[in-house]
Amino acid sequence: MSLRRLLPILAILAVSLxxxxxxxxxxxxxxxxxxxxxxxKNIDGSMVKLGMMKYSSAKGFLIVFTCNxxxxxxxxxxxxxxxxxxxxxxxxxxxAINPNDPELEPEDSxxxxxxxxxxxxxxxxxxxxxxxxxxxxxxxxKTPQIFILKKESGQxxxxxxxxxxSDFQTIKEKREKYLEQAMEELLAGKAVSNPNTIAKLxxxxxxxxx
Length: 210
Hints:
Glutaredoxin, 30% helix, two-stranded antiparallel ribbon, 7-stranded mixed β-sheet, 5 helices, alpha+beta
C-alpha cells in the first residue's frame, strides 16, 4: 500500500487512540463481579481473610469502607453496629475497612482505630488497608460506602454497592433504606431491585497516598 493511501488510515487510528486515552479508566468491581479474597490486619493484630474457616458457613458479607475522622462515618457508627447485629446471625457478617492513608489523615492511624473500636464496642473486624490495594480493587470512593457480597458456588459476587440509606440527615422515618431493602430482597431469594446507589453516596473522599 502506498504512503498516500496509508496516511488517512494512520490518521483515523491516531484519533481513535486519543479518544481511548481521553476516557477515564474505571476501576473497581461492578455489580455481578466476583471478588478476589484479601488479607488485612484487624485491630487485634490478627490477619483476616474472607476465606477463613470461621466464615465457611457465611452466605455472604457486608463490606463497609469507613474510618475514624470522617463526620459522616461517625454519624453512621451506631447504624453499622446495628447492621452487623441484625445480619450476622442471618449469614451476612459485617467487615469494616479503613481505607485512608494516616500520613494524610493522622486520626485514621491503626492505633486510633484500636481506640475507636474499643470505645464504640465494635463487634466486627475493623481492618486497616495499609497499601490501599483492596480499596482500589473494590473501587471505593467515599466513607462510608458499603458492598453486599453473596456467596455463589464458593465465590463471592457483588450484588449491591453504594449508600447505606438516603442520608442520615433526613428524618429517620423518611429515609430510604437502600441497604436494608437490598438485604430483605436477597434473604427472600429475590434479585436486588436497586443494586447500585453510588450516585446517592454522601461522605468523605478517601485519602489516597500521594
